[in-house]
Structure formats: structure tokens, C-alpha cells
Amino acid sequence: MAKKDVYFDEAEELYVIQALTLESISKRIPVSTRTLQEWSKQGNWERKRADRLRNRRVSRQETEDLYLMLVRNVKRQFEAAGEGEDAEPVVIDPVQGRLILGIQRALLDAKKYEELAEKVATDSADESDEPTGQLSDEEIAHRVSELIKSLS
């Protein structure tokens, strides 16, 4: 059986999905970097990687929107409860609280993935001028601190 039949799909997954470099892939599987370059061209791996990254950005923006909606909902609950001795106790739905924390972790993981994928992508320089919809570390930290303030 030819190496391509055995390793092509695995190499493509490592490149497109896990965002590894061809050099890293050649260290993991017994295929030369030169052969991986040929397979990459044949399989349009660069385009597939760029498409995947673009799709993850859209999904991430939708996830950020959901996260902010949930946080605003919790904040409104605290605001509606009032302040001081007349304040009513606020009970946050545990499912909603876990969902907020889970989304927060997923957003941070997505940001790390995008940074890694952008670092290793070489042919997508023409897309770098477009807004990415990404949150900076500072913006994420600010939003998390706002969430914590609204819960206290």
C-alpha cells in the first residue's frame, strides 16, 4: 500500500484541523516534508485551513453574542433585585451559571486556537487586513471582571 493511501488523511487532519506545520507533521508520521508539500497542494490544505479558521471565527462571534446575552440577563436580575436592606435575594439558575462559565472557557480556548492557526498560516496574509471579530485578552478580562462585579 502506498504511503499516500495510509497517511494522507491523517496528515491533512493534522494540518487543517490541528494547525500543525508540515515540518511537525513529518516528525509525527513517516512522510517527508517535501511529500507533505505536494499532498498539501493536491488537497488544497491551505484553503481548507483558511476556510476552517474563517468558519470558527463566525461561530466564535455567535458564541460571544450568546455569552454576553446570558451575562446581561444575570446582571438585569441583580439590578431588578435592588440594593441595600430592601434588596430581594437573587438566585442564579445553576444551569445558566455553568453555561456562562463553560462558554467563557470555550472562548478562551478558541482564541488560543485562532492565534496558533494564524501563526502557522503562511498564505493568508491578504486576509489579515479584515476585521476578525476576535476579542483581545484585555477585552476578555474586562468582560469577565464586569461579570464578576455584576454578580457581587
Largest sheet: none
Number of helices: 6
Radius of gyration: 22 Å
Annotation, overall tally of beta strands: 0
Mean pLDDT equals 78
Strand content: under 5%
Domains counted in the coordinates: how many? 2
Determine the structural class based on helices, strands and strand pairing: mainly alpha
Segments where pLDDT lies below 50 for 5+ residues? 122-131
Helix percent band: over 70%
Q: Between the first and last Cα atoms, what is the distance in angstroms?
A: 63 Å
Name the shape in a single word: rod-shaped
Tell me the series of helices and strands, N- to C-terminal: HHHHHH
Task: Describe, in plain words, how this protein is organized in 3D.
The chain is mainly α and 152 residues long. It has two domains: 1-43; 56-151, no CATH class. The protein has six helices and no strands. Helix 4 runs antiparallel to helix 5 (94-120). Mean pLDDT is 78; it is low at 122-131.
Set out the fold topology:
Elements: H1 3-16, H2 22-28, H3 33-43, H4 45-81, H5 94-120, H6 137-151
Helix pairs in contact: 1-3, 4-5
Keywords:
152 residues; 2 domains
Brief digest:
Helix content is 73%, strand content 0%.
